[in-house]
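Subgroup meeting minutes
Present: P.N., E.W., G.H.
Scribe: E.W.

1. P.N. recapped why we're keeping a running log of single-chain structure predictions: easier to compare across weeks, and new members can see raw inputs and outputs side by side.
2. G.H. added today's entry (278 aa).
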Amino acid sequence: MPLKKHKPVTPGTRQWLSIDYSELSKDPPEKKLLVPLHRRAGRNNQGRVTAPHRRNAYRGKYRLVDFKRSRDGEPAKVVSLQYDPNRTAFIALIEYPDGTRSYIIAPHGIKVGDVVQSGEDAPIRPGNTLPLARIPDGTLIHNIELIPGRGAQLVRAAGSFAQLMAKELEKDRVVVRLPSGEMRYIHARCRATVGRVSNVDNSNQKLGKAGRSFHRGRRPHVRGAAMNAVDHPHGGGEGKAGTAMPPQSRTGVYAKGKKTRSPRKSLRHLVRDRRVGR
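Output recorded in log:
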């Protein structure tokens, strides 16, 4: 969707560049697909801050999105395109022939009245979900499963897409290039949706003022060097003091250079690292 420039009548609207939602439906969300959303403001079950610089955002309800798309061979009609306050992508409300409705991540270019389908025999069209083994090489995909039947876990953010590079069906795996540039093996029976995610211009919008970020659950980000010694490993000292230890988070996790990927879970599936030249 295009971006909307606002008339600079206040300092907060002078730099404001927002998404134009005129193409989205103004219908209320489907009540049967709403559940309460309990936000924790970056705190764990003990009430301690584990994710700093967070706060409780607007208390919207969570939309139940179907990431499995397990109703094979049943064409579903797109009823409406809606805004989801809990994700950057738009969602599409689809209706099956028996009247059942569900939400899916809306792919780029989908319109009201289009028909989407899932299964091995589904046509290669944006919004259709197929096993990776049945998708042609070079196709742009999103909503990718990591384990067959678990549901989509990769490439779900606004405007993102991956690309199916090659197949090794004798080993039941395919090579997928992720948005980071990383190339990795994924099981051929895992499912993915054809096309890229909607709301392509999401990364180009400008909030214009700190208040809009605050209402989304983000508090001011304070540098560790500006804190006291009891609040951060970088804190304390007179003036601009250097750190006597490697850069790290407030909980002591090293921030630069320390490898955190699990060789058992992640590295053994890697074809090409996202860090070029490493």
